[in-house]
Design a protein that fits this description.
Elements lengths: L1 H5 L3 E4 L5 E4 L7 H9 L5 H6 L2 H8 L3 H15 L21 H7 L7 E6 L6 H10 L6 E6 L6 H10 L7 E5 L3 H18 L2 E7 L3 H4 L6 H22 L3 E6 L1 E4 L3 E4 L2 H5 L4 E7 L8 E8 L8 E7 L2 E2 L1
Parallel strand pairs: 3-7, 3-10, 4-5, 4-6, 6-7
Antiparallel strand pairs: 1-2, 8-9, 10-11, 11-12, 12-13
Length: 314
């Protein structure tokens, strides 16, 4: 609330007494503001958490108009208050924390992009994500959201120690249900981005909360939740010039074989995809293969073989 009052935005009280931020007639054109007022859509939070299809249907506005309003709503809810220091450069280079992976796949690590890393349980997805967090320069930070019930903080410490680092600047949070995960991405994450120079967001994993139990409203509501979370992550990656890395589980399809979980609903929301899998070499414990599944700058099927060591996946 302090951050919101500092920005001078309109503050109102909801039915539950909770203070909320609303649009004023100075934020939008007269016609758009009157339309939103009639539809009771002047509360900024609704524009951040509502799926795009719902907003288009309710307002009749174009996609570009809705995205413009969403950007204004996000700015009013979470004005950027952290100070940019001289050491923070305009350009930023992300890394897998492994040169052998950076050479063929480094072009996938760009601001405003969502990269999925998928594979079976125990394949090394979390390992790779943690070493990417360790590769973020100390003047910046990363955000690690675990939906699996626990966070491998000890493994992150081990990776940092093996690389001669004292620690990694990483904010970690656990949320295991669909509702808590949705709240984290749609409400809490924008506030973190407004207060800290986050350059990497890791979701570990996207499928876990949706596989944990039934969702009220069935498959339609499930798809809406997936889309709203995916659209929010894409928006945040673009707005805050950061990279989003999504870890995804594997599922067995009767015809297509092993596939990433959540199907096509989720596939449309990512920009690129890497697969990580175990290699069955008897003389190479911890052998892994990382291969490209989707990405405009990498030929599909391109792969690199690595091994898990103290420093991570190398």
């Amino acid at each position: 609330l302090i951050f919101r009052l500092m920005s001078g935005h309109s503050v109102s009280k909801g039915r539950d007494g909770r203070k909320v931020i609303v649009f004023s007639n100075k934020d939008l054109s007269h016609n758009v503001y009157e339309t939103l007022l009639q539809l009771n859509l002047i509360i900024c939070e609704k524009w951040v958490i509502s799926p795009l299809p719902d907003l288009i249907e309710q307002t009749g506005l174009t996609l570009s108009e809705i995205k413009m309003i969403q950007a204004k709503a996000s700015g009013k809810l979470c004005p950027r208050i952290f100070q940019v220091t001289p050491s923070m450069k305009e350009g930023f280079d992300w890394s897998f924390g492994c040169r052998n992976l950076d050479v063929p796949f480094g072009c996938l690590l760009k601001e405003g992009k969502v990269l999925e890393i998928w594979g079976a349980s125990g394949s090394g997805k979390t390992q790779l994500a943690l070493q990417m967090c360790s590769a973020i320069p100390p003047e910046y930070c990363s955000a690690y959201i675990s939906t699996e019930g626990s966070i491998s903080t000890s493994r992150l410490f081990d990776i940092c120690s093996a690389r001669g680092m004292t620690s990694a600047n990483c904010d970690m949070q656990t949320c295991t249900t669909v509702d808590s995960f949705s709240d984290c991405v749609l409400r809490q994450l924008p506030l973190l981005l407004a207060t800290k120079p986050v350059k990497l967001i890791v979701i570990d994993s996207i499928a876990a909360p949706f596989r944990a139990g039934e969702i009220e409203g069935g498959g339609v509501r499930r798809a809406q939740k997936i889309r709203s979370i995916g659209q929010q992550l894409k928006y945040l990656s673009s707005e805050y010039k950061l990279l989003v890395v999504i870890l995804n589980q594997a599922t067995d399809h009767p015809i297509k074989g092993t596939q990433p979980a959540l199907g096509m609903t989720w596939s449309y929301l990512i920009n690129s995809r890497l697969r990580i899998e175990k290699l069955g070499y008897d003389n190479m414990i911890g052998a892994r293969r990382v291969s490209a599944d989707k990405g405009s700058c990498v030929k599909s099927g391109t792969f690199v073989d690595c091994t898990i060591q103290k420093e991570g996946l190398l």
